[in-house]
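Team,

Forwarding the record for the chain on the shared tracking sheet. I've put the sequence and predicted structure together so nobody has to dig through attachments.
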Amino acid sequence: MARLSYSRPPPYAPLVNFGKRWGPSLGIWGFGAGTAAVFLLSVTPVVKNGLLVNLPLIGSYYEDKTPACDKPF
């Protein structure tokens, strides 16, 4: 006689399936949106001084080399 056993799927199974399906797409779109946000906000002093100047390879590009006497404010 065959034994019949029923096992319930774990409660996190829908979350795992959602992550497998949509994870790569959401990651790509999130990376693109983050890149666009940093690009558009790169002219603001908070983003420029707080984030972009501290990047290892391209930080010197974003440093302000204008002398203090030439700045209007």
